[in-house]
Amino acid sequence: MKPDNNLRPDSEPPEPTIFSAVITPHRSLGPAGFLIFMLVLGGASFVSGMIFLLAGAWPVFGFFGLDVLLVYWAFRANYRSGRAYEQVIVTASELTVRKVSHHGRVRQWTLNPVWVRLHRDEHEEFGIERLFLVSHGRRLPIAGFLGAREKESFAFALSGALAQARHGPARTVFE
Prior knowledge:
The chain has three helices and seven strands. By secondary structure, it is an alpha+beta fold.
């Protein structure tokens, strides 16, 4: 058995996690769907371009290839931005929010769950539009990737975890 370098005999074991969530942007078209879409678009563009080429309008053929290239580039940029995520972890003594951009840039905030409250910007018709963690007069936006229904579910779960953290850790006593 290999020793764990993170746990030393003089340190305490890590606190149990009350709540943990990783929030990622939604992408409705998966890799297989993207491949099929690009093949269909490329095939339709090639056939259309060939019709113009045979009719003597040869410069149009290149523009049909250019539009496929631009659509491909736009989808790749969209998928690249989909690598961003937010991670929210609640323990009895810490609430950690870690935001990772699609470039890999990491920003992290550690807050005391006793002093944090969850603020919701709600619209009558559309539901929850934005969620913020508020502590000491500062607001940290979270769950921006989620839709209104997902934000509502996330807010319910996070509120419950914050309430549990405010009550302190639960101890099990064996007799």
